[in-house]
Amino acid sequence: MTLLVSQVLNGIQLGLILFLLAAGLTLIFGILDFINLAHGAFYMLGAFLVATVSMWSGSFLLGLVAAAVIVGIIGIAVEYGLARTLYHRDHLEQVLATFGLLLVVDTAVHYIWGPAGLSVPLPTWLDGFVRFGGITLPAYRIFIVVCGLLLAAALWFVIARTRIGMVVRASASNRAMAEALGIETKLVFAGIFGVGAVVAGIAGSLVAPISGASIGMGGPVIILAFVIIIIGGLGSIRGAFIAAMLVGIIDTLGRAYIGSVLATVFTQKVASTAGPALASILIYLIMCAVLAFKPEGLFPPASR
Prior knowledge:
By secondary structure, this protein is mainly α.
């Protein structure tokens, strides 16, 4: 039972990290119709910045805040300098341009921080365990879950229940009409891009103490983020959240238990290799099923 609860917590934690990455991507992709392969670079920059500021200041929370602010500013700069000129271009041009930007950011990080990567020490109040009954859980993983849930609730509330969200939806649905009503759509789009960068940076900052900050760390997770927004529905915060939870729990439990099941039939070596691979395959099989039977996603926005 302790192992099962721990693995479920790990799955929820992974799902929330993926949600923070996918939420910004689904806003940019679903609302602005812009494919941003460089979104993983914001995730990577968040990890390096929180490591740098935390080591410099001795405060992990200050590192989180500083990383979010700096990555948000970088995101707005990318929107102003690159994305804005590509909104009306073909998706292939967007892919090529943002992939080039990703390579530039990777190279810049290599020159600034070096090839070895950085580790992030946790403060003493997070570097411990919390007991619930007879179950002991890492305090930092609980911290990630709480932060992820709060950010998820805040994003949903702003998009679905506030005037700001109404302006965002109006600008995305009919830009010409929104501008005729006096809405500065350029500022709205820059804000969406900036918020997307911020949540991706926070995701990278939260995962840095677990996996460290390394060059290219945004590449593998950006693929999972695209899978999540396909399963959940483009532009849907609720869909991204549910799909991220599904992917996170399936991936974690699959890696933990599929190998044990296979070990009853095959050798331990085969089972330990095939288990994680089958867990990853299962996620893509779910995506294929969604594309086949409900290509708009499980929870598409009402406007779609």
